[in-house]
Amino acid sequence: MAVDLRQVMAAILTFSMFIMLGNMVKRDHIDPFLESVQSSQSIDQYNASKAKGVILTEISYGPWKGQNEVRRPCWEIPSFKGKQSSRYVYIFLSNGPEYHASQIANAVVVARHLGATLLLPDIRGTKLGEKRDFGEIYDVKKFVASLNGVVQVAEVKPAEVSSMKFTAVRVPDRVSEDFITSKIEPIFRTKRYLRLVTYFDSLSMAKSKETMHSNAYQCLATFGSLKLQAELQELVDSMVGTLRSMSQTTGGHFVAVDLRVDMLGKKRCQENVAASKLCYNAEEIGEFLKKIGFHKETTIYLTQTGWHSRLDALRNIFPNTFTKDAIVPADERAKFMGSEGREYEQFVDFSICTQGDVFVPAYPSRFYASVAGNKIASGKTQIFVPAEKTSEMASDYLSPSRADQGIWAKTGRREIGGRAAINLAQPRSGRGRALSVDRIATMLTTDDFKELPNVGRRKLSNFCKILTTFYMSVHFPIQI
């Protein structure tokens, strides 16, 4: 009986295709589980150097997305040469990192407009009349260097300033040049020392986009001037490293959730039942993360201080849920987490939420808005906001803040095209769906293919090559 070479070729290609698909399934769905079983279940306390060595290579077990290209900053360093002025602008930073960038931005804009010297700020403490030196929280050298060419900064208060009384001037958040000219300049002509008091209202965030476009100095001060002092930054890096070491199943990714039990008891959260829902408790956050595709072994960081029984429902859904108390290095606990170090906790929370791969706010707040701004600036745009929707598409819950990326110059890099790209790289556990040949062809003709992670792109290319060869061999046989 004659052998048809076309049938032999088709059989070989079909067999090769199934071998390849089997290998892909093993690598994607079996190997990760074997790795997690072999890995230690203990919590490693990573030091700062180890934290920086973590490399994320694959999207795994949830709607994770690699970091976007960091956007070009919204400012250029100007050339400004001048002697230190004998007139000064001073600010007293509020007790909370979510306010500091805006307060610094106001002070920089006002001082530059008036030609005044900016005094190094102090930070208000939790107790009445208590204050902290700027250098206890932030890196003074980096702060001064970042504003070089913008305003003169006096690291040490001159002797004459210490004995003088400052005139307090109330200014709105994102102060405008018109406000400075009409309201502040007349006072500055007669007073040499001004203390700015920034007030925040519901319109502050709404007008931020317009102001940021018009004032590059404000943008520089907001996103480029405040860095934690070395010891505090090392603590944050260590804690982030610990969270990543517990996230081997998800490729080192973790979710940061702004959820504190005391906030859920606030009046605004109690009243949200009558109107649209604003606040979500621990169980609702857990169900939300599960709904949009996060694997049960996802590591979650909460801003809550100390564990509370009302958080148990979240841990029942995601066992790897922790507060800062569980992951802070033992030798740093007394200094940064004890009764004397409680004020450091909010700075730790802010930094960890900013560095996390995904951020989820359980309620609207200034903290959420500030973290979102910093994450977008650093290219980490995976910010999911819970809402009363039935959709299971993670992209349907992306924060509106992601749309307001005009404060950073465009780079030409598009966002990944939603859920399809995520599923191509790694199907959601238990919900993966097969892609038709037509769908694959469509993907190959769009820019979404270029945006896929290298692993997903390689798998798709190899798979399509086999399909194409098989198709050609059957429909356009070789003439023997």
UniProtKB/TrEMBL annotation:
A Pfam family this chain is assigned to: O-FucT
GO BP: fucose metabolic process
Protein origin, superkingdom: Eukaryota
Keyword flag Transmembrane: no
Regions that span the bilayer: none
Signal peptide residue numbers: none
Alphabetized UniProt keyword annotations: Carbohydrate metabolism, Fucose metabolism, Glycosyltransferase, Transferase
GO molecular-function term, one example from the UniProt record: glycosyltransferase activity
InterPro entries listed in its UniProt record: FucosylTrfase_pln (IPR024709), GDP-Fuc_O-FucTrfase (IPR019378)
Keyword Zinc: no
Family, as annotated: Belongs to the glycosyltransferase GT106 family.
PANTHER family: O-FUCOSYLTRANSFERASE FAMILY PROTEIN, PROTEIN MANNAN SYNTHESIS-RELATED 1
Name of the protein described by the UniProt record: O-fucosyltransferase family protein
